[in-house]
Each structure stands twice: as structure tokens, then as C-alpha cells.
Amino acid sequence: MTTSPATPLGFFAVDSLLGEEDVAIRDTVRKYVEVEVKPQLAGWYESGSVPARELAVELGSLGLLGMHLEGYGCAGTSATAYGLACMELEAGDSGLRSLVSVQGSLAMFAIWRHGSEEQKQEWLPRMATGEAIGCFGLTEADFGSNPAGMRTRATREGSDWVLSGTKMWITNGSVADVAVVWAQTDEGIRGFVVPTATPGFSAPEIKHKMSLRASVTSELVLDDVRLPDAAVLPGVTGLAGPLSCLNEARFGIVFGALGAARDCLETAIAYAQEREIFDQPLAGFQLTQAKIADMSLELGKGMLLALHLGRLKDAGTLDHRQVSLGKLNNTREAIAIARECRTILGAAGITLEYPVMRHANNLESVLTYEGTSEVHQLVIGQALTGVAAFR
Ligand SMILES: Cc1cc2nc3c(=O)[nH]c(=O)nc-3n(C[C@H](O)[C@H](O)[C@H](O)COP(=O)(O)OP(=O)(O)OC[C@H]3O[C@@H](n4cnc5c(N)ncnc54)[C@H](O)[C@@H]3O)c2cc1C
Fold it and tell me: Given the DSSP bridges, would you call strands 134-137 and 178-185 parallel, antiparallel or unpaired?
């Protein structure tokens, strides 16, 4: 006997946990992604180029840039609504969600939380509309998981600062109007708001990526970039500055990765229902159903975890180590789901005709950036044992 099928997340009655505003924002973003973005994604991915400027303006007009920040033209939504928006964006492509995460949670958040009033007034309203794009330069070629070792240096010359160094793997770098750059100073690590038109600044794009091809990734070269004293973020000194921003963006990934996984699973279920093998639908084989059941279980569990963390964040009680839990679990499960869905699609799964392998490849980056899975395991290990095992 057959009954009408449930969707993987519908089965968990996820909507019963959402408020009206959550649902409205989610549905608006879902429709935008389905209608405006999804038809373009395979082409962008194949060509390895994305119209980031146009996208930023569209995303800004939807109120998605810095959406969980208050004031300065930002929408001021709940953190949970921000997470749900990230999920819908990443159901399109992790590159699209990366654009929004870096803009809102890294570059804008850094200025919003640690910047001067002048820096906020100058950049945040234009970044909220997408008129100005931001990037966030922390990682260097030799210092990813251990950013404390960074070599980029800012030195005082009179009342100016002079920045020298190279950042690597920087999302939005080549299209950015402003870069938030972290550098060593005599006082410890400081953040600098660097207009990208400043002499000595360049941002060559990194090509030949197999992952996040619909996203701009760049090197930032700072060749004696001279900045006024007013360019330093006055509110923070030390690694706590960049880590506070990464925690914001990482929270969006807890939801976002599940969007990619959901898109893979929906694609695989639809494919299995249509595809006839040994004279019957692939969906009718027990092995296929076992895969679909197990993947739905992990997707739903990840969603309940994301929503729980969202509510904790909205209540102001979310600990950064809990964000590590969510990032570790949901990226790990999302990539496992994407790979398993690829098996259901067989050879067709390796093409861009279906989104599955594109998502799987993208999730390789998502697994690595914003703290690798191994680093989050170490964070959780330290929380539970009291012993730091980073070195
Ligand atoms: C597409 C993309 C976009 C990115 N965008 C940005 C951006 O906008 N801004 C930015 O600043 N950075 C960005 N990054 C950089 C990203 O944050 C780093 O790649 C990440 O922190 C890992 O650093 P790494 O690549 O140097 O790897 P490494 O730190 O060299 O790590 C290599 C391996 O060693 C493991 N490892 C590290 N430390 C330990 C340990 N103590 N014990 C055991 N294993 C360990 C890691 O988990 C990993 O498996 C981006 C990266 C990618 C791929």
C-alpha cells in the first residue's frame, strides 16, 4: 500500500517550530532562489564566474545583507530568520550563501560590532543595499587554522598606519569595495577598514577551483598600504576580534549547509521515483529507501539542532562552542548526504544537469572554511575534557 509522500523536513514538522516572520522570510528567499538564481547556477559554476555586483544589489533589495544587525539600514531580524535565509540561499549554491555570509556576518559585523561611529555611517548603509561589497581578510597562505601566526603587519608612521602582507582564500576579494583586514601590530592583532581603491592594495582572483566556483575567491596583496588612524577598528584588540565575526558567519553555516543537503535529497528522491531500473522505480528498492530514510533522519536532526541553536542565539545565551557543535555536525552530515545522493543518481549525478555534485563539491570548502571539522572537534574536545589539544 502506498500513502502520499512526506518531504524530509515536513516529516519532522519543522514548520510547527517557526514563527510567522521566520516562515515569511524563508518563503521569500526560497522563491527568489528558485526563480531568479537556480536557472543560472550551472552556467556560473561551469564558467567559474558569478555576477557578484548584480547579485549583491538583488540580495540587498531583499534585505538579506547584514539582516540580523540593528540600525544603519539593516533589517534587524532574529538570528533564526537569518539562519533560515542562509539555508534557502545555500539550497541554491554555497557560493551564494558565502557572498551573503561574508558581507553580513564578517565584513559588516566587524564594522558594526567593533567599528567607530564614522566607520559605521560610512560603510554599513551602502553595504546593506549591496551598493558596496565587503570582504574579510584573516587567512594567510601559511596561517589558516592558526591565524594567530599571521605575518601581515601594520606599523605606525606618524599618525598613519602602513599595512604590508598577503591574505589568501578571501571570499569577495576581487569585487570588494572595502576589506576588513586583520594585522599584527605592536599592540597585538588589530582590524583595519581598508577601501580597496587605496594605493598598494590589489586582489588577484584565485582560479582553477573545483569547489565554490560560483563565488569569487581572491588573494589580498597589501603593499605598503597607507591608512589614516581612523581606519583601525577601535573596539577590539587581539584574536577575539576576528573570532567574534567568524562565530557569526559560522552560525549561518549551521543552517546553510542543510540547504545544500536538502536540495540534494529532494533531487535524489524525485530522480529515484522517475528512474526505472530492473523494470521498476529505483525508489521501490529497499536499499534506496534505506538511504533516503537515513539521509532524511540526519537532515531533520541537523535542522532541529540548527533551530535550537538559533533560539539560544536569539535568547543571547549561545556559547561559541555550541556553534562549533552545529558547524561540525551539519557540514559533516550535509556532505555525507550530498555524496550519498550522488550514488542514487548514478552517472547522471556527475553532471551539472543536476545540482548534487555541485553541492557536494561546494561542501568541501564549507567543511574547511570558518574552522575545519578537525578544529571544531578540538574545540569541543577542549570543552568536554578541559584539555586543549591544538598543538
Ligand atoms: C573557498 C574558500 C573561501 C574562503 N574564504 C575566506 C575568507 O573570506 N576570509 C578568510 O580569512 N579566510 C577564508 N578562507 C580560508 C579558510 O578559513 C581556511 O582555509 C581554513 O581556516 C583552513 O586553513 P588552511 O586552508 O590553511 O588549512 P590548514 O590550517 O593548513 O589545515 C590543514 C589540515 O590540518 C588540520 N589541522 C589544523 N590544525 C590542526 C590541529 N591542531 N590538529 C589536527 N589537525 C589540524 C585541518 O583541520 C586541515 O584538515 C576560505 C577558504 C576557502 C576554501
Answer: parallel
